[in-house]
Amino acid sequence: MKSLVSFALCWAFLISAQGWAQSIKGIATYKTQRKVAIELDSTQMDDGMHAQMMAMLKKQFEKEYTLEFTNNESVYKEVPKLDSPGSGGNAWVQVEVVGSGGEGVLYKNLDESRFANQTESFSKMFLIKDQLEDREWKLEKETKNIGQYTCFKATTTYDRTVMSMVNSNEDGEKSSKEEESTETVTLTAWYTPQIPIKNGPDNYDGLPGLILEVSDGDLSILCSKVVLNPEKGLDIKEPTQGKKVSQEEYEGIMEKKMKEMNERYQSDNRRGSGGNEIEIRIGG
Predict the structure, then answer these.
(1) For labeling, which of 35, 111, 125, 215 is most exposed (least CB within 10 Å)?
(2) Residues contacting residue 118 through CB under 8 Å, at least 6 positions apart
(3) Is the pLDDT of residue 46 over 80?
């Protein structure tokens, strides 16, 4: 009986999709969160300061985005916040989030399987142009409701490189160095065939329905609202500003910049010029 119900549900979605798949357009709103775990030497800050810093970082990663989409194109961009970063008066903490400039615009063309990502990093605007990633999704039977939409689960796995700072004490001299390791991450997405487009927030796509929720390691994305056929229409334009690079070239530039920052940080510590300032660099 359960298999008959599942078949009937999928068939209903298929009939619905065939009826209006040629004219889909809408705006989806997403909210993002990122878990941040930072361990610091007790000499750098006490428990109260650490708790305050973690609360500030949590707020920094609680963002809202809109995805304007049609069958074949989309634009994903951040909704500006009223309060500016650093307005809390914590001048002793500097947060550098790589690749997540507030002026970022991610354009995707599904027909041509390509994207153009305009993003600001280290005070420089980049225009990353490359092919969309072809993920090997595994479609699961599990379902759940997100708002008014019935969503199906899909998963995939990938390996990612993790950089960590390791402290050492050689010959009585304290120092730190970066160590590289690899971990396997399970990416989970929930998509709805009721909106039959192969798109979703950020760089997530390739499923038989709009992706409404993503769990990718320490990053969570959840759709809070979908407006189909908005009265004001859409504003989907491919960005053109910034230094043109491929995804691989951009990642190489960011890796080099991060190494330079780490060397500068270690040099400042050796000279004792760091004072009470704490610098946190997070790859976005």
Answers:
(1) 111
(2) 103, 104, 105, 106, 107, 125, 126, 127, 128, 239, 241, 242
(3) no
